[in-house]
Amino acid sequence: MSQKSFSRSANSKPSAPRVQSTAAGLHPRNRHQQRYDFEALMAVSPELGDFIRPTPKGNHSIDFTNPQAIKALNRALLRHWYQIDGWDIPDGYLCPPIPGRADYIHNLADLLAAANGGKQPAGKRIRVMDIGCGANCIYPLIGNSEYGWQFIAADIDPLSLASAQRILAANPALQPAISLRQQPDSQCYFQHVLQGKEFLDLTLCNPPFHESPEQMARGNQRKWKNLGKWDDQQPDSTALNAETPLNFGGQSNELWCAGGEVSFVSRMMQESRQYASQVYWFTSLVSRQAALPALEKVLRDVGAVQQQVITMTQGQKSSRFIAWSFLNAEQQKIWRQMRWQSKG
Fold this sequence. Notes:
Rossmann fold, 15% strand, single chain, alpha/beta, two-stranded antiparallel ribbon, disordered N terminus
């Protein structure tokens, strides 16, 4: 696809296609609708059995405050549902909850489908960039497994990329589908990674949402209270702090940055304008509803033609991502014809 295809300017703003999210629960195509079947998971990943414990109701579960237990659960889920072998991450790196990550992928597929007659574009024609793939590389793994999409997985941390490479090495069929690239500049998102003639149907990102280590420490405290592992009477000397590990782990660059998610995503939006004709939809998770007005203003300032917020519901928890595009309706039509519908 050539740059010339998108040289027209729009005389009117097209209305954004709406994406429907489930009213209560995970996306309908999400494989994790039901309670974990620990017997089936242990059948494909016996090491999970070391972490299984009986519940007061006589069921099986794991200790969700134990990072090693969560890592073993993720390994089993990926092997059982997505045929991913040898998944692992270094200690202390972000260990993502699989169901929520899958929901983002399925809602992204619906975002594309909303402009494609309700059909999710699939296969290697669809190219996606994960900004900050982390050591877990979870979005490319699920996105390729579910839809056959091709991924650029970028990160600034060489240890994260080395971990992702080990996962790909254990799954040779994935290597042609997922390209790992290091971002050398922490202030850049697309520059240095996206090449001049590369086109992307989607970008995705799970940004660091805390503004400081202190804010992260307060978040840690709330999480541990919710897990029933916090004692309000304990002396300050033993209180949780920014160094206290979370059950899901995470390095500093994965969890916080100056200005938090508003600053991080705003810079991404501003830089995205330079790649307006190379990307159909830019997207990013946004953890706080209150952050949306500031981000929507940035999109107006940079001239995004379309923007929308897609809400995802997981039990009693809601999350969301914001999507934006610089392509007008005619440009998007040409894109779909050339990339999604062409037989050549």
